Q: What sequence folds into this?
């Protein structure tokens, strides 16, 4: 390859983690650039985590601040827990993108800019009074590389016959080429990827390849870039792919269908950032998944409860506003004791709030947000790939205990990605679903829909089964026959029994493992999507010799059996959350005497490791 | 994927009697409530529809009418106010072999449940929806419902209601319903025929039953059903027959193409013969005439039609859903390992 | 009057409180009998409290257990706090009513029975194997009076020309007559009441009067009844009437309309046991109240929010399932900061639960049941008459702080009644509502809808006001301009500001008064409808010399400023609730270190004084 | 009771220009989105409707279309998905003097919001509801909507949709709407006329706007709006005029009373004259003909009608509500002290 022919001798530095953020206008193809570079890093054996930052939902005018789209990737040779706090490298395709993202760039970080885009018009659209590239402080604080990407792309495609609009669409491959060179990625692989991507529009294959190679060559020849190598990480052996949390959730449910041999039914209504679960599952029909796009969220969960009564493994997916609408229905699922998984991909609230931003503020609603006494298990996924396991686990608990289960994820997990070790289907734990087939009372002469087993679980008898015809419903039911009962003592018994059943689920909640010593000065307690940041902060602090440990809660109701004992082992407890302190409140209520400190950010972004480390050092 | 673990070797259909559909729980409606006559007809009709008892599911919302499933010896769901069609839809889509009935009230179906109602009609899901229209909220003891008359005085509208009522068949037709019928609690045989026709229809079916609530809205339909006036106030739509009514069957409906309007004529007067009358055809693809007849109940001077307004066969939502599923399975096979692995994987040793 | 002419000399005993329960078939007119006797007791100057116990919603077959309807009245010469635990007198009109209620009658209590109704058929319908009136233990445990009321009524009406059905409908006046005699009530007053009641059906006036007088005469002549006098109580001077909680709530809102001169708008959807608020307010049109029966609960609150944007004093009323449905809308009211009162008349849950029974289990939903961070004030009425004051107070807070407010009542308060001291309209505290009329920024040249005052309250600018045109909505808003903002820091600021504003409401929350000593062995903490039972229990315990005090929480969010300090003064804290421990949990979360004991009944009934006293004695 | 504390001395209506209705916030719809043309027409039309700017309120739900109020310089509420009619109803009932518009999308109005939609139509509340029908969920990036065609492939229906679409004017008519119209984003002048007619109608008004979403459902209407076919595929309903279409205006609609069905005829062929054609009359009390025309869009071979389907004046919900309030005030006076005191009080000294 010509690019190799002209290779110059560059010193290659070895680094163990790098965070790169690609930012540009919505039309600049930054999501694609990011994804492609992510794949290359994965294939190079790095561990990694990514997070896209989409603009607000409606497309904004080109060049505007609202239209900036970003994609952040953290990759490395060690275990990568988050997409990274502050980028080491910022690739900015226009002034608006620079303006929104420069404040995040690490001091001394590398800034690669498409300088052609810094026209007077674009600067104005971004609200810049003067050209920031001419600002001396920028050059002082960062390693700035101004690249005329537009012109260089045009030059590469001269005579290609493409329109100037089409040429513009290739520009992102120029940036990608530069980065390929910088991080010593194999060119051939990307050339093939381009060929595959444009298989249906072959006229674009060569131009894009050309631009990509031009970018690579630029990196090599311009003599302005450093070159790095990030050695492969020591991930557990296996075959990996990169998954977003939403895709992993869908995959988890599809896997349930296969493991059980039953129909998995998703009743859902689109809502950001949960919609992809519906999209993905709708495209898994051949695996036993039936999806139903209902007229609203209430019908989404309603159809799922109907399907559950019919014996399907039912689920519904939504985000905050939809969870709110499903409130009444969840109460019905509780009292009818039908299995159901409700996935809430949390986003910024209250109300419509900030739909494209992440938050963890639906926690107390998930635990308490139903009228009457209506407890149900609540599980929270801890990383994009964990969404796969959590979806399966939530469904397992739902079926085993005949109960609705809430699975909390969030926009950060749902849209973020990380490598997922692909399990071998045959090695996955068995998941058998049994329906009641015979009468269960009075020597098999009667069927009692509320006759419970020793774990307090009632039988699942589904239509089509002769002799087990029975009625379920939202009115309180007699504790044995399932007939409507207005008897106060029966009601009290049923309330207590339902509560006890959910408490019993603790037998399926694994004990917590403390990361670090089991006693110490401070315990970090996290839940849900903040796992990576908090674990990384704990690593930093432990490396500094601080007596700081970390536990992470996947199970929120019931809480793990050993949590209370663990909490007692630490002088202080700190709960970092992307909300105003909901888990901290919950723990106070659950463990009288424990009064956790709080670290709360509610700015639509995941918690930053360095901020948390700072907070811990402050309170230690 | 199968949904059951039962041996579903096709067994012969048992010969059922009415009592096979009685759950043994005594209905707790008020004495004289029209709901008794409805359940009576349902239990009488079911033995003849040719579906096994365990394959029939009654789904209801909340209301007097919605207690219905408790009194039937089938599978049943007494759900939430207004939401029965949502449950029924999920059940039917996931288990198309079941026969699913929704039993609902005028408030349940058309107030809080209006959206699910129009959507189940639009989708042509094979769900049979029977609405007990007593033009009042019975269970909550007498408030105005979306079918109560304008200016009606109820507990919640002591000076009269400022709301126009829905004409339920009109709404169902507007939503795209493929089967729409109306009957009356006191017309047992007619109701039976409507129930049977609905059971036989593949697709969403809507039956409005005029139902008397002797406690909170007594006599809502006596102006139609009183023996003295019934023949003049009710017109029976019978397939393929001219639309006639009146004591001696001499009054009829004629469409005047000049005024583009319906008129009441008398056979034998002004040269009108039976040939001039509109002949009932519920199977017209275009619903215009069904609309016209359904709208008639609200027109001063016109009789109220009962019978089948529309009965058109179209592929149902669940049929098309499962066709797609089978197609996709055929095309793609369904290897889960492949799905898990995806296109872009890499291996670490 | 002849009844007086034949008066025999009976020893009249003085008692200070009596609890009577009237029970019979739904058709037996027990609600009327109860209400009439209540009025007589009120007019006699007794303090009192009542509670009806309706059968499940649909009318059941005559004589069945499901069809039993009851009405309990507690009246006395001292302050009456509850309708009474166990009745001293039980009036039972048929076997089913006896069966359902006899277990509640106090040992040694009086049982008055319509013995004519104890036919074989009725006994069978009630599930009696043998006639309980012939059961010797009944006669041993109670003072039993068998009265052939049916026959005696028939006899009184012989020749009246009434049909036997019509005669049957008069029977309840016979029972009332007996009680009038027993409690020395003036006959004339009831005769007038009958005349008034049947003013439109005059043919029934005389027969009912006759039967009533016959009952009175029977009491006098039968020589089997004791006669009592209950001296008037020392209520605060004033004019009183008996009100149910639901009626009082309606009255409170209507009063707001008058005090403010603004439209009060109620958007609602019927639901037991909240429907009466809609019924009553619909009949208060002439006072400035506009009611709108929406198509569902969501539209109920939605219409109210729309009206609030238009400047109305808006409210919505519902019970648990409806509150669940309003969840998403409440979030919008929080973020738009519009005034609104949401009344939740709690009933037995979860789901449809036990619609006609009372419960306090919506507490945590009210506090936490919304997605995102969406705090709002929560207030709970403490007695039927307090609903009047609470409705006004909730609306005052909503308007003053520009926030939705949840007002919790319950089935027990809503249907129960007590004397209400009628306020003089002119003496009620002023309630002024001011809308923004001018621009508020940059020297009056601009309008900033989120420019807050020192209490953090934003202005209320309503359509029709020129120059203040602005847009509200559920997306996060810039903290000044109110424009849509996706800025993370602005969001964090707004979340914190909204939370702080609600915390600021504490300035309007009165400090708690401790009933009893401010330190001691045990503090009873109650909230909402259990006020009466808990206060009465505290009285009993204090009278026994126990160091037990009581505080009652009307304000739940924010909690009163001095609660924390009060809690510290007691060795133990006990929280009695009609739920599974929600307030106890909330207090644990709010006051780390405080770990209240719980006393929970979830049987659809108010807490019994003696049960609570027993519990306290057990844990002291 | 008055709702405002403003001096409401009637001041003269200012002379408005289009820009008086622009909020100054630049719309953030995608380039080429049909929504631009709608806001343009609304802002152009408002100066002529004779209502003060501060007395106009735009209420919307959630969706691309629902961002509308932010770009208008009136009072505005951007509320919750599907619920705009609920807010608008409460606002209108409590403040009948305001002019209330609901701006909504096909998903917003007919999926999650279907119930509020049919109820606002039923009640005949004086609310003007403009539905931007792009037959797709735009804001959430391309899922099937209740107006998407059967078998449509979208992100949520990768193998095609099994759901039949609503015909929105049909649904509105079925719910009892008194004003129903349809127009197209690319027909600016026509849209302006529809908006003006809706503004002038007292009662619930529904305008369906066919709107192109170039990003997620591009070309949804090109088969109608393409210059080459427009004249043949679109029929313009004009009051009092015969229903004609086609390049030379020679095609027309005739109702055949024998078949009771509509047919397309050509003037001058087979003896057809203009007199044989259906003459458009949107003011017919009976909605049958409006139904027939509204249903036509779905009939193969028939042109799609635009214009006013129905326009009938009936007392509105808020008129009747306030009539009752005034009546009650007159009858009862409204002495609060009397209400507080009730009938059965007693005095303690
Ligand atoms: C969410 C919710 N809202 C309100 C209610 C109260 N509710 C129960 S049934 C009913 C209306 C009943 O009327 P209809 O559907 O006509 O049935 P009917 O009783 O007349 O047969 C209402 C308002 C409820 N149970 N749940
Ligand atoms: C309760 C709730 N459910 C779902 C959503 C997500 N959502 C926002 S807009 C929309 C549909 C938009 O489609 P449409 O109404 O046709 O408007 P368009 O964007 O096409 O103009 C959906 C599903 C939401 N915001 N709130
Ligand atoms: S209230 Fe009316 S509808 Fe309900 S059971 Fe009684 S009579 Fe029937
Ligand atoms: S997504 Fe479609 S409807 Fe939404 S703004 Fe873009 S073009 Fe318009
Ligand atoms: Mg009804
Ligand atoms: Mg749309």
A:
């Amino acid at each position: 390859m010509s690019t190799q022919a002209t290779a110059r001798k560059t010193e290659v530095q070895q680094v163990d983690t790098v965070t790169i953020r690609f930012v540009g206008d919505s039309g600049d193809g930054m999501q694609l650039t990011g994804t492609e570079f992510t794949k290359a890093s994965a294939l190079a054996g790095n561990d990694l985590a990514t997070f896209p930052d989409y603009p607000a939902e409606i497309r904004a005018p080109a060049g505007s601040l609202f239209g900036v789209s970003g994609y952040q990737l953290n990759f490395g040779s060690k275990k990568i827990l988050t997409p990274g706090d502050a980028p080491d490298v910022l690739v900015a395709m226009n002034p608006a993108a620079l303006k929104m993202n420069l404040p995040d760039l690490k001091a001394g970080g590398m800034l690669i800019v498409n300088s052609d885009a810094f026209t007077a018009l674009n600067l104005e659209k971004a609200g810049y009074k003067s050209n920031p590239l001419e600002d001396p402080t920028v050059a002082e604080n960062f390693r700035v590389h101004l690249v005329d990407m537009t012109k260089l792309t045009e030059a590469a495609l001269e005579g290609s016959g493409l329109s100037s609009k089409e040429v513009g669409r290739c520009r992102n491959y120029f940036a990608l080429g530069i980065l390929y060179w910088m991080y010593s990625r194999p060119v051939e692989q990307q050339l093939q990827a381009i060929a595959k991507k444009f298989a249906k529009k072959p006229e674009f294959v060569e131009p894009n390849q050309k631009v990509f190679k031009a970018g690579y060559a630029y990196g090599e020849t311009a003599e302005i870039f450093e070159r790095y190598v990030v050695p492969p990480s020591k991930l557990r052996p296996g075959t990996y792919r990169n998954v977003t949390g939403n895709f992993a959730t869908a995959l988890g449910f599809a896997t349930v269908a296969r493991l059980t041999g039953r129909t998995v039914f998703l009743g859902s209504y689109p809502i950001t950032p949960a919609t992809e679960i519906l999209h993905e599952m709708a495209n898994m029909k051949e695996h036993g998944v039936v999806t139903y796009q209902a007229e609203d969220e209430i019908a989404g969960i309603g159809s799922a409860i109907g399907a559950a009564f019919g014996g399907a493994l039912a689920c519904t997916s939504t985000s905050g506003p939809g969870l709110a609408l499903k409130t009444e229905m969840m109460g019905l699922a509780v009292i009818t004791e039908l299995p159901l998984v409700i996935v809430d991909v949390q986003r910024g609230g209250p109300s419509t709030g900030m739909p494209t931003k992440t938050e963890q503020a639906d926690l107390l609603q998930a635990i308490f947000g139903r009228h009457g006494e209506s407890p149900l298990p609540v599980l929270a996924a801890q990383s994009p790939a964990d969404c796969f396991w959590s979806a399966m686990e939530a469904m397992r608990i739902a079926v085993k205990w005949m109960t609705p289960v809430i699975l909390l994820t969030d926009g950060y997990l749902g849209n973020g990605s990380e490598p997922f070790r692909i399990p071998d289907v045959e090695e996955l734990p068995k998941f058998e679903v049994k329906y009641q087939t015979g009468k269960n009372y009075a020597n098999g002469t009667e069927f009692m829909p509320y006759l419970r087993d020793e774990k307090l679980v009632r039988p699942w008898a589904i239509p089509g089964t002769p002799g087990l015809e029975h009625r379920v419903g939202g009115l309180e039911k007699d504790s044995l026959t399932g007939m409507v009962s207005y008897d106060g003592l029966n009601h009290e018994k049923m309330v207590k029994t339902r509560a006890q059943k959910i408490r019993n689920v603790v037998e399926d909640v694994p004990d917590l493992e403390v990361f670090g010593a089991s006693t110490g000065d401070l315990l970090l307690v996290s839940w849900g999507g903040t796992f990576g940041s908090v674990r990384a902060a704990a690593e930093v602090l432990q490396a500094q010799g601080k007596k700081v440990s970390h536990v992470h809660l996947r199970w929120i109701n019931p809480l793990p059996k050993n949590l209370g004992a663990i909490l007692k082992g630490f002088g202080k407890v700190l709960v970092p959350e992307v909300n105003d302190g909901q888990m901290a409140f919950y723990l106070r209520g659950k463990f009288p005497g424990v009064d956790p400190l709080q670290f709360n950010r509610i700015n639509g972004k995941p918690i930053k490791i360095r901020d948390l480390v700072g907070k811990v050092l402050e309170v230690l | 994927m199968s949904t059951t673990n039962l041996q579903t070797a096709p067994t012969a259909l048992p010969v059922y009697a009415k009592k096979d559909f009685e759950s043994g729980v005594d209905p707790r409606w008020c004495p004289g409530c029209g709901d008794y006559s409805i359940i009576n007809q349902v239990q009488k009709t079911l033995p003849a529809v040719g579906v096994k008892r365990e394959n029939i599911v009654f789904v209801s919302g909340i209301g007097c009418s919605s207690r219905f499933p408790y009194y039937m010896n089938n599978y049943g769901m007494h759900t939430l106010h207004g939401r029965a069609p949502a449950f029924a839809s999920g059940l039917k889509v996931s288990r198309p072999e079941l026969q699913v009935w929704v039993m609902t009230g005028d408030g349940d179906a058309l107030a809080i449940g209006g959206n699910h109602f129009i959507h189940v009609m639009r989708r042509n899901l094979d769900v049979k929806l029977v609405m007990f229209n007593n033009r009042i909220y019975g269970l909550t003891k007498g408030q105005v419902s979306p079918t109560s008359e304008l200016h009606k005085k109820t507990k919640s509208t002591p000076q009269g209601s400022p709301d126009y009522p829905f004409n339920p068949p009109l709404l169902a037709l507007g939503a795209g319903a493929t089967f729409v019928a109306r009957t009356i609690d006191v017309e047992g045989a007619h109701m039976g025929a409507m129930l049977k026709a609905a059971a036989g229809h593949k697709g969403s079916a809507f039956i409005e039953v005029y139902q008397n609530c002797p406690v909170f809205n007594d006599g809502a339909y006596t102006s139609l059903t009183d023996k003295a006036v019934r023949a003049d106030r009710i017109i029976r739509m019978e397939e393929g027959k001219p639309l006639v009514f009146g004591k001696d069957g001499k009054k009829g409906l004629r469409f005047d193409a000049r005024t583009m309007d319906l008129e009441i004529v008398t056979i034998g007067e002004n040269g009108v013969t039976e040939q001039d009358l509109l002949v009932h055809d519920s199977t017209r693809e275009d619903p215009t005439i069904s609309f016209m007849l359904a709208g008639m109940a609200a027109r001063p001077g016109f009789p109220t039609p009962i019978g089948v307004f529309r009965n058109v066969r179209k592929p149902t939502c669940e049929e098309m859903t499962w066709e797609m599923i089978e197609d996709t399975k055929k095309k793609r096979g369904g290897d889960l390992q492949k799905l898990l692995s995806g296109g872009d994987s890499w291996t670490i040793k």
User: Anything to note?
Assistant: Residues 254 and 278 of chain D are 5 Å apart (CA to CA).
